[in-house]
């Protein structure tokens, strides 16, 4: 069994701190984006921010994992709806990505999402290292 060390930075999504995000771009292998599935009004803003982030040169190779959080809340948008409204098929077409439904309160889907992310990044990094030889 392989083990990996993962460094995670939770930088928050408030508009007042978004200008600081670029301080974390260098050597970033993955981006985890959390969407509140129960707040349909913020999806468009979220789409714009994902587009801006993924267009940065330093983020060109990073894997994208989108958590569609609050899937346990009645009336929450489905994973498919979130995927379509964020335009992930277009926005993330040049990278490895996945959207994963979850419930942060109950922990459902979180471990599975991070397991996919770690495996995807490890596969990509080790493949790159192999081809450099």
From TrEMBL:
Its main location: Golgi. GO terms for molecular function: GTP binding; GTPase activity. SUPFAM superfamilies: P-loop containing nucleoside triphosphate hydrolases (SSF52540). PROSITE patterns: ARF. InterPro entries: ARL2/3, P-loop_NTPase, Small_GTPase_ARF/SAR. GO terms for biological process: protein transport; vesicle-mediated transport. Gene3D superfamilies: P-loop containing nucleotide triphosphate hydrolases (3.40.50.300). It comes from the Eukaryota. Keywords: ER-Golgi transport, Golgi apparatus, GTP-binding, Lipoprotein, Myristate, Nucleotide-binding, Protein transport, Transport. Pfam families: Arf. The keyword S-adenosyl-L-methionine does not apply. The keyword Lipid metabolism does not apply. It is found in: Golgi apparatus. GTP binds at residues 13, 69-72. GO terms for cellular component: Golgi apparatus. Belongs to the small GTPase superfamily. Arf family. PANTHER family: ADP-RIBOSYLATION FACTOR-LIKE PROTEIN 2-RELATED. This is ADP-ribosylation factor-like protein 2, variant 2. It comes from Babesia caballi.
């Amino acid at each position: 069994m392989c083990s990996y060390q993962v460094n995670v930075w939770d930088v928050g999504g408030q508009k007042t701190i978004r200008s600081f995000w670029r301080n974390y771009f260098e050597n970033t292998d993955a981006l985890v984006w959390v969407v509140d599935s129960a707040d349909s009004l913020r999806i468009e803003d979220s789409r714009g921010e994902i587009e801006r982030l993924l267009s940065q040169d330093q983020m060109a190779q990073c894997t994208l994992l989108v958590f569609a959080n609050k899937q346990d809340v009645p009336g929450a948008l489905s994973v498919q709806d979130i995927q379509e409204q964020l335009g992930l098929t277009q926005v993330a077409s040049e990278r490895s990505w996945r959207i994963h439904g979850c419930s942060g309160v109950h922990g459902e889907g979180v471990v599975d999402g991070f397991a996919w992310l770690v495996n995807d990044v490890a596969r990509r990094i080790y493949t790159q290292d192999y081809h450099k030889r």
